[in-house]
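Consider the tokenized backbone below.
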């Protein structure tokens, strides 16, 4: 059986990536990192934030092209496509608006690559699958959700984009493709303000009225259990965010919960510390994003055919 090393969000941290690959036993031969028995799988979010954007893209794309890795699209790749795609043509408007907030988010990608380099890699981003189902394991950037995947397949004919109008639909709020892609690449959310709870400031100091749903926890049935609120989050005035109420959530909010037994690996959620002590790996779901671009460590999970997640199979970069 093929062994896989599922590698978390890299966000422009090429030195950490090279170190991790070497520590996992990949050798740099003929310009490509390869392992004699295993294959890497990247969960997306290669770009933005870090200082080594181009080198990350060069490493990962050569691995994918050379057959030593696979990859799924992350929300930062999707955002880069929208940021670069003018619509309608000649209008000066883009699918992802060039606002101050979006400009700041993409600043490192914009500054570190030439126009031609960005165009080359954005065109590659547009070909990436939204998920991988390899039979005995599954990989997605933010949430494995069958109904959203069915919508994508109905709209696209597969799990990949192949036309500009599809990106237009996926960038249009209210369109069913938009809603499906939001779930797969950013994760489903539960409204806090609709329950008269205050909005919170996230890791980037943005005020949010909805929290991500802990879809990986099939035991979560209340707002306190299912809403993803970090200990560091505060209210708008800077006070610690209050304890969430222990009230039941709706069946619709519970519908995102993963109850199947095929292991799922995902990134996106900016975990900290050691994955062996993380709160969001369960018997069949494991996050591999441990905040390498914010002082954490690039993390992988070494999968070798096991049917349940084993904490000891996590591997963190020593650097």
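A designed sequence for it:
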């Amino acid at each position: 059986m093929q062994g896989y090393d599922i590698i978390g969000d890299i966000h422009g941290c090429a030195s950490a990536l090279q170190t991790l690959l070497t520590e996992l036993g990949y050798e740099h031969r003929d310009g490509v990192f390869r392992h004699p028995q295993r294959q890497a799988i990247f969960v997306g979010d290669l770009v933005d934030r870090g200082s080594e954007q181009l080198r990350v893209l060069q490493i990962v794309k050569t691995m994918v092209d050379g057959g030593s890795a696979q990859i799924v699209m992350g929300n930062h790749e999707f955002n880069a496509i929208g940021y670069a795609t003018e619509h309608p043509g000649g209008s000066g408007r883009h699918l992802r608006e060039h606002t101050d907030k979006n400009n700041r988010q993409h600043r490192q990608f914009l500054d570190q690559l030439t126009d031609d380099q960005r165009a080359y890699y954005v065109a590659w981003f547009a070909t990436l699958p939204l998920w991988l189902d390899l039979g005995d394991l599954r990989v997605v950037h933010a949430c494995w959700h069958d109904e959203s995947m069915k919508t994508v397949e109905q709209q696209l004919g597969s799990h990949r984009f192949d036309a500009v109008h599809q990106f237009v639909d996926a960038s249009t709020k209210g369109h069913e493709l938009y809603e499906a892609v939001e779930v797969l690449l950013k994760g489903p959310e539960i409204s806090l303000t609709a329950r008269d709870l205050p909005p919170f400031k996230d890791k980037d100091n943005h005020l949010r009225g909805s929290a991500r749903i802990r879809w990986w926890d099939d035991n979560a049935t209340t707002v306190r259990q299912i809403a993803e609120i970090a200990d560091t989050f505060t209210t708008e005035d800077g006070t610690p965010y209050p304890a969430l109420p222990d009230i039941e959530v709706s069946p619709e909010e519970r519908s995102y919960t993963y109850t199947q037994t095929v292991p799922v690996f995902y990134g996106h959620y900016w975990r900290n510390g050691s994955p062996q002590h993380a709160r969001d790996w369960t018997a069949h779901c494991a996050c591999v994003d441990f905040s390498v671009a914010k002082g954490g460590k690039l993390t992988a999970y070494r999968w070798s055919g096991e049917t349940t997640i084993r904490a000891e199979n996590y591997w963190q970069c020593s650097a």
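The first helix runs from residue 14 to 23.
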